[in-house]
Amino acid sequence: MNRETRQGPLIAAGLLLGTGMGGFVDGITLHQILQWHNMLSSIRPPTTLVEMKVNMVWDGLFHALTWVVTAIGLGLLWRVGRRTDVPWSGRTFVGSLLAGWGMFNFVEGVIDHQILGIHHVHPGENQLAWDVGFLASGVVFLLVGYGLIRAGREDQTSRGQGAPALHPAGA
Amino acid sequence: MRALSTAFLALALFDMPAAVSACPNCPTARAARVEVFDQDFGRNLLMALAPFLVVGVITTAVYRSGPRIPTKGSAS
Which of A1, A15, A62 to mutate to test the interface with B (most CBs of B within 10 A)? Predict the structure, then answer.
């Protein structure tokens, strides 16, 4: 009988946790510490105290959504740790974290910066270059993450109880 | 016990100016709330949600149909 392991659940957990980490880096570093942009700063420039507070609310919503994604990722990771058909692979997990961070940078960059234009990474001179650099960082993280996930296919030991594996193929 | 009470009282007194200046219900805060919940609220909410929805769809697809790898030594 064919037996197989599944990488999907661990990758999914890593993607969500990577998205959360990437989102928090964006929100904490670019929104708050450096103050390069806010959530709606290109359509509602924070040039008055009221507009600044409006942007703070939307930044808060962004952080809240990032927290929810992180919490779901933790839940998925916990469940993966109890399964016998999902290999507990450091390479797969770290690769998924990087891929999740890259996916967030790319998706958020395309939607918020390019399509909707609600904010840009560093508005003003060279705005497009900063936005393209953000997208490029996403692609690089995705590629490095994908490489690690592929390498993780060699790992077959699960963390859950019992022998590794497994579902009959095609089940 | 008395020292602890004094410490808590001192802490509360030190925190009071910060709480006052946080302005949770001053005219500026009320004006900001009106601006947040204006006619664009739904559109802004959708724009804020959009990247997370896409991430959710991609992650769900990976969870359901991610790589399945035959174990070494399993019969073919």
Answer: A15
What is the pTM for the complete model shown?
A: 0.85
Sign of torsion, CA A54 A60 A63 A67?
Answer: negative
pLDDT of residue B74: 55
Mean pLDDT of A84-88: 93
pLDDT at A33: 97
Nearest CB to B71 within list A16, A111, A164: A164
Q: In whole angstroms, give the CA distance from residue A7 to residue B76.
A: 20
Q: Which residues of A touch B41 (CB under 8 A)?
A: none
End-to-end CA separation in angstroms for chain B: 74
Inform me whether the C-beta atom of residue B57 falls under 8 Å from chain A C-beta atoms: no
Q: Is A106 in the B-facing interface, judged by CB distances under 8 Å?
A: no
Cα–Cα dist A148/A145, whole Å: 5
Q: What one-letter code names the amino acid at B17? A: P
* Cβ neighbour number for residue B12 with a 10 Å cutoff: 10
Q: What is the ipTM of this complex?
A: 0.89
A39 touches chain B (CB under 8 A): yes
Q: Give the list of residues 6+ apart from residue A111 with CB closer than 8 angstroms, or none.
A: B50, B51, B54
- DSSP labels for B11-40? HHHHHHHHHHHT-SSSHHHHHHHHHHTSTT
How does residue B67 score in pLDDT terms, banded at 50, 70 and 90? confident
